[in-house]
Amino acid sequence: MYGALRFEPVSAQIRDALEDLLADYRRSGDGSGAEASATRNGYPGTDGYIEFWSRIACEAWPERGFVRTDTLIAFRGERAIGDLRLRRTLTPDLERDGGNIGYAVRASERGKGYATAMLREGLRRAAEIGIVRALLTIEITNAASLRVAEKCGGVVRDDVVAEDGAMLRRIWVETGSS
Ligand SMILES: CC(C)(COP(=O)(O)OP(=O)(O)OC[C@H]1O[C@@H](n2cnc3c(N)ncnc32)[C@H](O)[C@@H]1OP(=O)(O)O)[C@@H](O)C(=O)NCCC(=O)NCCS
C-alpha cells in the first residue's frame, strides 16, 4: 500500500521539489517532454518550466499551438513523484498527438500505481470542467502507459502515425468511469 498523492499546481513555491523531479527525468531520459516543450519555446530549465507552464495554465497560447493546460505536480509527502497535464480543449494537432491528459512518473517511483492514481485525478478534474470523455494518445510501444489507460477504463479508438513517425494509439476514457 502506498501513501496517497497530493497535487500542487506548478508554481515557484514548489521549485526545489520540481527541480529534483526534473533532474531525475533528465537522468532517465524520459518523462521530460514538458520541459522540452518549455525549452523549445524559450523557457529553459526549472524556472523556465515554471514560467511557461504557469502561463499556459491561465490562458491558451494559440500562436505557439498551446491550449489552456493545467500542470499539476504529484507529491508523496514532500517528494514530487510525477507530473500530470490536463489540456482543456483539443485542436486537430492534439487530436492526433497529445490528447487531453498526459502524465509521467520519475523512474524510481514507477510500478507502484502512481500513474494510475494520477490519471484518475486528471479524469476527475476533466469531469469538473465538463469534459465527458478524455482523449489519450499513447505510443503503441509504451506498454506501461497503455496498461494505465486500460486500468482507468480506456477504450481504443484507433492507431495513427505521429509527425515523427511513431505509432500512436488513441484511447477514449469516460471521465465518470474511473
Ligand atoms: C508510463 C508511466 C507513467 C507509468 O507509470 P507507473 O507509475 O509505473 O504506472 P502504474 O504503476 O500506475 O501502472 C503501470 C502498469 O503497467 C504495467 N507495466 C509496466 N511495465 C510494463 C510492460 N513492459 N509491459 C506490460 N505492462 C507493464 C504495470 O505492471 C502496471 O500494471 P498493473 O497495475 O496491472 O501491474 C511511466 O512509465 C513513465 O513515466 N514513463 C515515461 C513517461 C511516459 O511514457 N508517459 C506516458 C506518455 S503517454
Keywords:
178 residues, alpha+beta, three-stranded antiparallel β-sheet, 27% strand, globular, binds coenzyme A
Portion in beta strands: 25-35%
Got a strand count? 7
Q: What is the multimeric organization of the chains shown?
A: single chain
CATH topology: Aminopeptidase
Measured distance between first and last alpha carbons: 19 Å
CATH architecture label name: 3-Layer(aba) Sandwich
**Radius of gyration from the alpha-carbon trace, in angstroms:** 15 Å
| Heterogens | coenzyme A
Structural class given helices, strands, pairing? Answer: alpha+beta
Number of domains: 1
Largest sheet: 4 strands, antiparallel
> Which word captures the global form?
globular
**What order do the helices and strands follow?**
EHHHEEHEHEHEE
Q: Unreliable runs, pLDDT <50, ≥5 residues?
A: none
Q: Just give the CATH class.
A: Alpha Beta
The helix tally amounts to 6
Q: What is the H level of CATH, i.e. the homologous superfamily? A: Gcn5-related N-acetyltransferase (GNAT)
Widest sheet: strand ordering: 1-2-3-4
Q: Mean of the pLDDT scores?
A: 95
Question: Helix coverage percent of residues?
Answer: 25-40%
Concise summary:
With 178 residues, the chain is α+β, with helices and mostly antiparallel strands. It has a single domain, classed as Aminopeptidase.
